[in-house]
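Hey, can you fold this one?
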Amino acid sequence: HETIYRTLYVQTRGALRRELTAYLRSARKRRGARHAEGPGARGGSIVGALSISERPAEAADRAVPGHWEGDLLCGSGGSQIATLVERQSRYVMLVKMPDKNSVRVARALARKIQRLPKELRRSLAWDRGIEMASHRQFTLDTQVQVYFCDPYSPWQRGSNENTNGLHRQYFPKGRDLAHYSQAHLDNVAAELNARPRQTLRWQSPAERFGQSVALTDCAHRTPRPEPPWMGSWRPGADTRPPSAPGVNQDAHDSVASGAVLLPPLQENELLEEVHVLLVLQQRAMQWRQALARI
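Sure. Predicted structure:
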């Protein structure tokens, strides 16, 4: 890709250059150095900051969901939006920010993160922006440890940096972001989460993240105790399963060969599982329909 950029910015001139660079997503008129620091407040020291090198290894290889990357998307007039991206699914959450005050930033992020299941909020990677100086209070409220990137190393949270490029399609530079409501930010996030991604084998972030949520719900589902009339019988045993009280044993045994009549409680559990699958299937259909309208 560097060859393409050099061709556009170095070799082209005049009207041709303006025409070609207009097709770039960033629409920059000049080529920015990769090590250049982006706009926004920088500097200052963050007390008790943990380096991103101390982040659990499971976050680096994206093996476990729940590790997030965050940043502030800045606009004109000191306006900003907090962006959060989950590393495994690339799921996006946008949070409206009143200002860069670290206490208010930590409080707003905590409210958003606390809506997630505990298993899906494990860590947060942030840059060296002073807006996260109250990271200790954020960790106390959410039990999510914050890890800070090295200075001038935004590539250490690459998922968030790449997604911020997509955000700029909705929130161009120089625009006052204070005019956008939280409801509008939620709609933008929903559109981004419905986009299939090649890195996800053409699943959308919403689909991948929904699978993680479903697995979390199943893991927390409390199993019902076995009814006392079942005794020590288990599926696969040579003996026939006992019938529930009030059920005729001959009718119970009249099922087809190899079939097992589930006890009433087990039937209810099966219906719950089917209901969950139907809900997930309905949500996937809604995501596909939303994607078709984009």
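Strands lie at 50-51, 67-74, 80-86, 92-97, 123-126, 145-148. Let me know if you want another pass with a different chain boundary.
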